[in-house]
Amino acid sequence: MSPGTPSLLDRLSLNQQTVRQWSLPELADGCARAGVRGVGLWRAPVQQYGVAAAARLVRDAGLRVTSLCRGGFFTAVDPMERAAALDDNRAALDEAAALGTDTLVLVSGGLPPGSRDLRGARERIADALAELAPYAAERDVRLALEPLHPMYAADRCVVSTLAQALDLAERFPAGRVGVVVDTYHLWWDDTVGAQIGRAGGSGGARGTDGPGGAAGSRIAAFQLADWVTPLPEGVLLGRGQLGDGSVDLRWFRERVEAAGYRGPVEVEIFNPALWARDGTEVLAETVRRFLAHVG
Amino acid sequence: MSPGTPSLLDRLSLNQQTVRQWSLPELADGCARAGVRGVGLWRAPVQQYGVAAAARLVRDAGLRVTSLCRGGFFTAVDPMERAAALDDNRAALDEAAALGTDTLVLVSGGLPPGSRDLRGARERIADALAELAPYAAERDVRLALEPLHPMYAADRCVVSTLAQALDLAERFPAGRVGVVVDTYHLWWDDTVGAQIGRAGGSGGARGTDGPGGAAGSRIAAFQLADWVTPLPEGVLLGRGQLGDGSVDLRWFRERVEAAGYRGPVEVEIFNPALWARDGTEVLAETVRRFLAHVG
Questions:
Q1: Average pLDDT, consecutive stretches of 10 residues, N- to C-terminus, chain A (295 residues)
Q2: Which one of B118, B154, B231 has the shortest CB-CB distance to A234?
Q3: Chain A positions in Cβ-Cβ contact with residue B111 (cut-off 8 Å)
Q4: What is the pLDDT of residues A189-247, one digit of tens each?
Q5: Using a CB-CB distance cutoff of 8 angstroms, which residues of chain A are in contact with residue B149?
Q6: A189 CA: distance to closest CA in chain B (Å)
Q7: Which of A158, B83, B158, B167 is disulfide-compatible with B121, CB 3.0–4.6 A?
Q8: Which chain A residue has the Cα nearest residue B154?
Q9: Closest residue on chain A to B114 (Cα)
């Protein structure tokens, strides 16, 4: 293996939501012991631990922070709410920079109460990206727009497909605004292969040494979870362990690699059944599943 | 109002699932009293009552059966299961013809257990349509492929967008295979307006006096429900009364009419809160909401 091409296992990153039962020190220790070299972090537990302390903790454990979740929620119409959301996103960009990650994941926001205007909400996302892009650029953090499954369109994210995310991202330089390819959200879409190809297209502003590897790639992050049914009430916590569901995970990995992506492969599973188990066991299982179903 | 252009209220059809608390005689009586002229029926209650008796009942009440739900479930790989599904669909076509409706709604089926092959499942749907189309033609019933929300892709219907449904339907004459435009399933999709236009395109086999009015229109049925959150466990029974949710129902009505559709407008809401109430009240509320949010 040449130094420029890390093995797939070296690219594995554990999103901390997968092992929500773990504190940050447990996460850092558990990953280091398991040989997992990347972690995806969330703002709330990082803030609770202290941003600087969390940055030191993961750095001392030899871990790379592959993404910070999450900014976004850009769709408010009310000017005060909107200003507060932008302020909060600037704080998120500061936190991302402090943690040493180049990727802030954005969940765009749903429809404001009483609104049925999807198009208007999507335009407000573009406006917010335009406001935040210079601030992100100063911190060398990329805004990573995540399309969420269409079942979240009303209350969480009006960006439902990779095509929609790219339509928004492409208004900006590739180095400033990218997209998240998350198998859980996108697996059902028969156009997703073509859109991954579109996301990998060259011509953007980021150099070949940026995340993802390819010049101009819009793929800022690649996340894995499987789709299992029945969905639980509220449909937030029903993601499946790799291999337990309907998603052809290997196909996705091959598609993003064909599009030039060589960045982290982050496992992000929201599932109370995993949280009820021993974190070390869950991580060991996740690594096994990753090798069996993704590698 | 000229005889050729029925008012919107004349086009209202009540799908019997909206008032599941009603028996078939209650449904026929309730609709006749409320001035509702169409009903959408489901196979199980019709079979239980007796197909011929149900046909007589609704005819005597002056009602038109605007659709029969449902055939489909075409995605099995096992030859025995597949043959049984086709037999069952032939029975459904016989029942549709007996009820005097020209529209059999098809829910295509999900992934077979253990499968991750969406493309293969979609091809098996095309094969089933090819097998059933001549049988449907003999009975003058149109196969109406319904795209279901992507949250059902694994366990219920691998056809998740209007574009996918049209890709399948367009392999056949427009008079033989159409599509269902259901607001609940399609509202989130920013390409749905363009796809409704595509569905209304001329050039098909059905004449101007067929359902939908426009020569060659693929729009076999137009169904309404609103999108409300949080979704319940299993996500089957969480549809909203018209006006309670995120869907711009009037926009959809205008789009299908711009595409040439002048057929029934069927309200199909699966919601236990509606079933717990008096059916007459629910129907009166539905008519009021229909006029306020669709008309």
A1: 71 98 98 97 98 98 98 97 98 98 98 97 98 98 98 98 98 97 98 97 46 68 98 96 98 97 97 98 98 96
A2: B231
A3: 246
A4: 999 999 999 999 853 334 444 444 444 699 999 999 999 999 999 999 999 999 999 99
A5: 150-151
A6: 8
A7: B158
A8: A246
A9: A246
Mind listing the pLDDT tens digit for each residue in B178-216?
999 999 999 999 999 999 999 998 533 344 444 444 446
What lies within 8 Å, CB to CB, of B261 at 6+ separation is B181, B200, B212, B213, B214, B217, B219, B222
Q: Is residue A1 situated within a structural domain?
A: no
For residue A196, what are the CA distances in angstroms to A26, A219, B223?
Answer: 35, 8, 33
All residues at 6 or more sequence positions from A253 whose CB lies less than 8 Å from its CB, including other chains? A8, A222, A265, A294
Contacting A with CB below 8 Å, chain B residues are 111, 115-119, 122, 149-151, 153-155, 158, 160-161, 164, 187-190, 227-235, 245-248
In angstroms, the CA A188 to CA A186 distance is 6
**Domain count of chain B?**
1
Task: Look at the alpha carbons of A211, A213, A215, A219 in this order and tell me if their dihedral is positive or negative.
Answer: negative
Tell me whether residues A234 and B230 touch, CB distance under 8 A.
yes
Q: Domain for residue A153, yes or no?
A: yes
Contact flag B164-A229 (C-beta cutoff 8 Å): no
Q: Is residue B71 part of a domain?
A: yes
Residue A204: predicted pLDDT: 38
Query: Does a structural domain hold residue A289?
Result: yes
What torsion do the CA atoms of A71, A73, A78, A79 make, to the nearest 10 degrees? 20
- The per-residue pLDDT for A4 is 56
Domain span at residue B58 reads 8-293
Q: Report the CATH number at residue B168.
A: 3.20.20.150
Judged by CB atoms closer than 8 Å, whether chains meet at B150 and A154 is answered as no
